[in-house]
């Protein structure tokens, strides 16, 4: 009688283990991993926002001081390991042109601020805002202001 009881409990244990194993194998781990995956654009934006308040320096491309293209170059290199050219004009030659209404976090946005040529670049962060190294340091700006609305030229998607 004791051996019969022991056999039943072993059999129940075996089936419970088998059931747990099957549940583990067919659980939606891949779906939750996909949902938890952060886009490259979000990585770029998060990295850029952490540099808010860093000073402006003409020709600068480090946290000790940035100019516009030095900032975007530094952020892309250190957040998603993408190399961008050093100048605004050369950065504007990269990527896929994006309509303003289709902007996504991490897209580069270009402005004509001097003599009607492309001379300024920032990183779109969402909700009609971008971050850039301005003459007053790295700051979040609104695309809705008259100045930036009038100076807006184009946007480029460098990473997908």
Describe this structure as you would to a colleague.
- This protein has a 6-stranded antiparallel sheet. The protein has a two-stranded antiparallel ribbon with strand order 1-2.
- The model is unreliable at 30-35 (pLDDT under 50).
- It has helices at residues 2-25, 29-36, 40-49, 68-80, 88-91, 146-151; strands spanning 61-62, 65-66, 96-98, 108-114, 117-126, 129-134, 137-142, 152-157.
- The longest helix has 24 residues, at 2-25.
- It is α+β, with helices and mostly antiparallel strands.
- The protein has one domain: endopeptidase fold (from Nostoc punctiforme) (Alpha-Beta Complex).
- The radius of gyration is 26 Å and the shape is globular.
- The chain contains 6 helices and 8 strands.
- The protein is 41% helix and 26% strand.
